[in-house]
User: What shape does this take?
Amino acid sequence: MSGNGKNRTESKERIGVYVCHCGSNIAGVVDVEDVAQWAARELADRGVVIARDYKFMCSSLGQELIEKDIKEKNLTRVVVAACSPHLHENTFRTACNRGGLNPYLCELVSIREQVSWVHTDKAAATLKSKAVLSGGVERVIHHEPLEPLHVPIQSASLVVGGGIAGIQSALELADAGYHVYMVEREPSIGGHMAQFDKTFPTLDCSACILTPRMVSVGSHPNITLLTWSEVTKVDGYVGNFEVTIRQKPRYVNTELCTGCGICQEKCPKKVIDEIYEAGLGYRKAIYTPFPQAVPKYPVIDPDNCIYFERGTCKACEKFCPTEAIDFNQEDEYITINVGNIILATGYDLFDPRRVTQYGYGRLANVFTSLEFERLTNAAGPTNGEVVLRDGITKPSAVGIIHCVGSRDRNFNNYCSVICCMQGLKFAHLVHERTGATAYNFYIDMRTAYKAYDEFYQRVLEEGTLFVRGKVAEVTDAARLPGEEGKLIIQVEDTLAGKQRRIPVDMVILSAALEPRHDADEVAKLFGISCSADGWFIEKHPKLDPVATMTEGVFIAGCVQGPKDIPSSVSQGAAASARVLGRIQQGEIALEPIRASVIEEKCSGCRICNDLCPFSAIIYHDDRMVTEINAALCQGCGTCIAACPAGAITGTGFSNEQVLSQIEGLLMLNLAPPVEILDA
Amino acid sequence: MSRYLFYPGCSMESSAIAYHESLMAILGPLDLNLEEIEDWNCCGATEYLGINLIPAYALISRNLALAAGQINGHNNNTVVASCSACYLNLAKADHYMKERPVLGEKVNLALAAGGLKYQPGALEIRHLLDVIINDIGLETVQTKVVKPLKGLRVAPYLGCMVPRPDYNKHWSDHEHPNELDRLLKALGAEVIDFPLKTHCCGGHMPQISPSTAFELIRRLIQAADEYHADVMVTVCPMCQMNLDAYQGETNRHFHTNYHMPVLFFTQLMGLAFGLEPRKLGFGKELVDARKAMSRIGVEVPQDEMQPRKARRKKEGLPMPSMPGEEAE
Assistant: This one.
């Protein structure tokens, strides 16, 4: 049986087919000449008037070939069999446009990623290429000429997260003359970097390089700083987001407060500071997290405030010289309009209690990396003294364990990137502050990037000892003389091929960086997606690391994956450059690949309403029908597939187009395999 | 209280008779119904699996097949084992027969010779401690406590075979599980954070390489002693025997002088429930627990059955050394 026996709509189109060799990428596996000749021969009755193969279709010459054919042979449709549309769809659409054909009348089918790269059987791969091409030809017949949507872009932007990545983003945008709203969950901006004392590899003081930037953010005329605030709702679409922000009550009138700090001095309630001091120090119930906090205004933590618990106290109010304390404040919701959003919400530290054999939480002198940062910080709970949990004793030997919760299939497979350099920094600080022996227990030392390996050499020369091997256990069970009263690190030294027991006074666990505990919810709020590990997914891991699949939403810093300060700053700046480019254009052209609802067919069942990953679906209560916001829709097709009434259709992927493509793929145009199937 | 199938294992009848007696004594207060698997056989302990897998699994699975046949429409298909080695062997056989169908077939071929058959996954294999903690619950246990063990410092020692590999995720953690700690706290005892709670007791090493076993035993006893524990508490007959019966030899080997009584958790449960020490198998331990127990006002009877140690005659002849025995 031949495919021509099917009762399909007659094709009146004049179709040009172009099969790319991609050097040997495709031609090495697929017989591209055969595919082109087959198309010219067998698909002629489907409207194919010319089929060519060419070494590199994406080259200027390849593109000119298409342009020339459109003009000379009056082509009305173009099918290119080459790589994934992700790479070159735009190239060939533009070529068609130059040739005078509406760009959306061009179809790109992938015979590289989906054929030549995944198959080794040449005959079968060639056959499959024909099938894929046949599907493309059947589909392109039903294409319609489309025009891109143009929407204006609001010049203001939103930056979520006030760590170093967010700070960099905000300053770049504000310095370029555009307004920025910065939203930060904590009472002050600064993020994790504000907790550190020194930064690797140059050992410059973290606060000294960070606080000038924080001050700039706080005082910049183009930045509206909203701390102690969270984004609760995001509506709209690229160029025109409408964002609702909840400002939690500070219980301090910022117009009256001078930041003098008397309230904190007089507050009788001491609380363990789990955030800024990493649980190693205290704050009051009314507090600014640290002296250089921006803004300088304190907040009252209502969960711990004596007044909120028992109804009396108000010490802060009594002593405040400017009467700035206001216990009657409530949540405030503000709505802003922005064109673009940059998410820089950072990371959480892995809870090393989960690695029970390292004893964190049971053994007093096992510390997390963040706790140790606070120990070394001159503004920290010990004024920078490196001491044991008793607060007095200086250690004489310190063990630093790498990869706690990372590179471990029980917890996280990925490398947390910063731990090797952080471990070196810790070893240096231990030497400098205590003169103690420092051990680094590592799986692999990874000191890539500028001046990092030099720092490694320096720390080696300082006398830090390195043991290669994953630590089996940290225990206080002494077995040998000299172990009493110590923490013993049991480890296989894989370079020497020996089991070692190393007694130390203090253990520092280089805990993994993990996605924020609420990363899932935040991703959903902004309509982007998380990887299996929980990090936000970039548009392209190499070529588009700060954009996301949602137009107008960018990511920067650790929210995209573990990274150090230089990389976070680079991403912050890069995200801003992307946003600035958008703002400069004034308007943005959106792909017209959109879903739309045929109102007469919609029963108002609302099945599609919650499925849209981009929150593009609006339900009209009055008319009991669903509508799709064309600017917000990304053309994913989920709603179309879900609609039981078939009331949703997609420009660029109508039922007709999809079904025709499937028919084509099922090789209706391919005679021989049908016989094989019959047999 | 629903009925559980019970696999006691060989040691419960001999070396760990104190475990058996105390367990039987607390069944009443716990309202626990254990139905012994009829005609059960040895699980093969730790050695047989190291020699020949198929017969070893067949030996274990015979018990599983018998137990499955004894479910008889009861709604509980749980087999409770009191010994850690038995528990692990039963769970292991069930797990690997499921994971490796070829093994399952071969084992069933062997079972067929005795007219038996076992469908892997038909039973849930659990340790006694797991059932007490997770089915009966600490609240219930606490309501039965009439004589809290106030002032008794105990080292909770679980051994290596209970929390690992934990095929069915019954335990809170594999390195530092807290089940035994919580139970002993519920009994009112002062529980030390015993760092070696899941370390190995030496298993059958005392027979194979005594010096290795003595080192492992010393580590445990030493750690408990450094924490000033009055007694160590175990959930496993083998752990109890190694730490108790070989403590004297370990002391001689290292020229130490540890005196650390080793008891079963069921014995302490019985005490806290106000039962007679004599009915709980007290006095059967070799390292005398009388002094430790008298600290909380418990009088432990001396076991009449235990023969007085015969004093070695000075003029006695030396024993011949056995081939392969390590020189000390």
Q: What stands out?
A: The first strand of chain A starts at residue 15 and ends at 20.
